[in-house]
Each structure stands twice: as C-alpha cells, then as structure tokens.
Request: fold
Amino acid sequence: MPPNVWKQLRMLKITLHDGPDKLNFVVEGKLIGAWARELEQSWKKASSIRGGKALFVDLSEVLFIDEEGKRVLCKLFKEGASFRSAGPMTDSIVDEITGKSTGRWRGILTQSILILLLAGIARGAADPPALKLTLAEAVQMALRQNPKVQIANLNIAESRENQIIARSGLLPQVNLNASESVHRANLEALFGSRIPGFSEHIGPYYVIQGGPSGSVPIFDLTLWRRWQASRENVKGTRAEDLTVREENVQLVVSQYLGSLRAAADVRAAQSRVDLARALFDQASDLQKNGVGTGIDTLRSNVQYQNERQRLIDSETQLKTSLFGLARLLNVDPHQNVELADESEFFHMAEYTADESIERAVQERPEAKALNSQIRVAEIQKKEAEDARLPKLSLSGQWTQQGLAPTATIPAYNFEADFDVPLFTGGRIKAQTAVQDIELKKFEQQRTDLRNQIALEVKTAIAQLEAAKSEVEVANQGVDLAREEVVEARDRFQAGVANNIEVVTAQDEFARANDNQIAALYRYNQARADLAHATGQMESLYAK
Reply:
C-alpha cells in the first residue's frame, strides 16, 4: 500500500528490519483488536527464525493501544521483547508493562495502586473471594453440599435403622422388671355372695416383686420375611441415592456447560465489538480524508452499536447462568463462581464410556431401584403366604415376690405358645392377591423403563454424532466468514466497494460464531446426555 494511502487509513503497519544482531519490529498506526493479534502472529513467525538475535519493538509511531494491544505487548515482554516508545500514552503503557515508571507517571501509578489496594481490601472484607472451579470440582462440590444429595444419604441411614428393627424381631427379648403395689379387694364382689366368718374385704396389703422376663420366637417365617424385605429396602435406598446423585450431576454439568457457552458468547461478542470499532474508525478516517461517505460511517456506527448491545446481552446471560450454578452448588449467595474450564470449551473431547443399551439397563440407578422394589414385593408376597403356617415362641418370667422386702420367695412363669391360624376371614388370600397385583405393576414399569432407557441411549448417540458433524461444519463456516470479512475490508480499503459488503460480512461472521458456539454446546450436552442415559454421569464427570 502506498505510504500516503496508509496514512489516510491510519491502520496498523508492521515492518520487520533484520539486523546483524537484532530483529526490530516497527509498528505504526493503531494497535487494537484484530490488528494487535496480527502483531502477535508476526512475532511468532519471527521468533522461530531469530537465531539468537535480540528482539525489539518500536512503538514510536503507534497512535492508540487498546486492551487487546496491551495483552499482546505483555506477552511479547514476557517472551524477551524490548520496547522503544514516544509520547505520554505509549510511555505510560510501556512503563506499566515493564515496571519502569519514572517521575510523574510513577507517582500516578503508585497512587492508582494504593487506591486499588484499598478498594480490594474493602471489597474483600465485604464479600468472600471468587470460587474458581473446574467442571469436575463443581460436580464434587455439588455431591458434597447439595441438600437433595444429603437427604438421600439420610434416607440410607434411616433404612439401615429400619433393618435393625426388623432383625430385632428374630432375636430374644429380655427385660428386667421391678414393682411395688398395694391391693385391696371386695370378697363379696369376687365370689358373688358374702362368706360367713370372713371379712367383707381383704387388704390393703403390699406386694413387692422384681426379676427378669424374656421371650424368643422359635418358628415364625413372617418375621424372617420382614427382615429380608428390610435388607432389600436398604439396597433400594442406595439405588435411589445413586439416582439423586446422577440427576444432580446432570444438572450441574448442564448448568456448567451452559455457563461455558455464555462465556464463549461473551468472548466472541467482545471480539466482534473490537472488529466493529476498528471498522467504524476506518470509515470515519476515510470520511475525514474525503475518501469515504457519511452513509458508510453511519452504517459502520450502527453495526458497532449493535455489537455492543449483543455484548451486553451476552454478559448478562453469563452472570445469570453463574448464579444458577452457584445455587446448584449450594454456596454462599455472596460468593461469586468463576469457570476454570473456559479454554476447554472449544476442545471437542471424545466420548470414551460404554454406550450399549444392555450396559445402560444394568447401570442406570433407576433400574436398580426398581429391581429392588420388585424383590421387596416378592418377599412380601411370601410373607403373606407364610402367615398360614403355625408359629412357635417361648416366654418366661422369674421374680422374687413377697409382701415385704425381707419376706420374698422365688416365683416364676414359663410358657410355650403354639399358634395355628384356622380362619382369617380371607385376609391372607387378599394380602397375597395384593402383592401379585403389585408385582404385575412393577413388571409393567420395568418394561416401560427399559424402553425409555433404550430410547434415551439411541437419541443421545444420534445427537452426539450429529453434533460432531455440526461442529466440523461450523468451524469451516467460521473460517470462511473470517476470510469474507478480510476480503470485504480489502475491497473497502481499495475503494472498489462501499462498506455494505463489510457490514454483510460482519453479520455473516457473527452468525458463524453463534453457529460454532451452539454446535460445540450441543456436542458437549449430547455427551452429558449419553452419559446420563447409560448411568455413567458421576464416573465420567466427578473425576
């Protein structure tokens, strides 16, 4: 590009001077947005062929540096670059990056640091520090802190205690009793008439007694069945606990993935804002120099404001999504949650777990819980049938009994109880029929659950395969849209077209960005749906 044309556009110009002992980058124009990344790419290419030479960056002709430009310069400085600057703005930025503030700028920087430190201390005293979590850490925290998971754990403890209660019915029961009582009885009421020569009553007299008593079932299958059912209930409660854990992991993973998508939308929106700002500046400069028209500048400004609006919407969506994640994690409402896996969003991880329907039917905790309920119903049916059998138990009592503590003698009572049900009014038959009906209902539920699991597995596999293809297409779309933007800008700079082509290319690039982010989100969500369908959420996402 001729020098006079470049000065009119005021874009970024990078010139590399290869000296005998150093490589010197001369940067002219505005170090902003995508143009700053061009410097970063040029730096990478030169660093690979430097051959031990020193690297210098001349910023004397730089007009403006935005946040993206500062980021690139910081990266270059960390990789060994030295800077040359001129002018208050460039000097202050270079001093800030290199830590070599002098004179007035040092005082300003020191005051700024003190203000920031005081503000940070005041804010730290009010709010706890942000909680930065990976996906695995978020899942682990939810499994520790979520109230539903804690309630499920308590249900397991409760079922274990119920099992102990049922088992106690099979064991001997021993008691120690001691009593003191006073008695007075009406003889006429006891015998129906007055007895000549006897008083009309006896007493009052005191009776003192104390000693052990006990009982033990010898043969009672109903008690045995109750204990078997309680033991199976413990297994069922554990399966229900796994169901709660899997559902909780699914919610956390979906919310975290949604937050990653929102964060990606923010980054893409910010990049588009930078690009729109650069194009707006370009159109403004062309108009000022008589090359462009006012409608081009107005059109670029409208596009710039639209991109700013999209950025605001994206930032709001990210905040609300993080609020929802914090609620699932049951953290302090005043504590912010940050995502540590933002850089992993654009990495399309492979699905490595077993995706077969047979494995899903075996591993899904809902299926395990239903199987436990069926076994409990079968045991309860046997309990109802066993109620027809005779029952045998032993009981006894041994006491020291007397009218005074010094006049007690041993007294005992031992008995064997043999109970044979002869007529129960149809109760046993009805109880057996009720359990048969329950078993038929459970069989219908098991068939329905198996079909549901099969459908979920097939659907998740199809969605995963489709999402994978969508990601590939979306990535190509982003590359093509980016190339379209570059070509449209070149045509606009050359004056062979107005910026309608540029604005159209911007819209296509924004749409391609959105398609790429949506496709990546659908892929990650499809992986999570397949893991849930096969009962492997916790095993895949909690490690």
Observations:
- Strands lie at 13-18, 22-31, 54-65, 82-84, 131-133, 173-186, 201-219, 337-339, 391-402, 409-419.
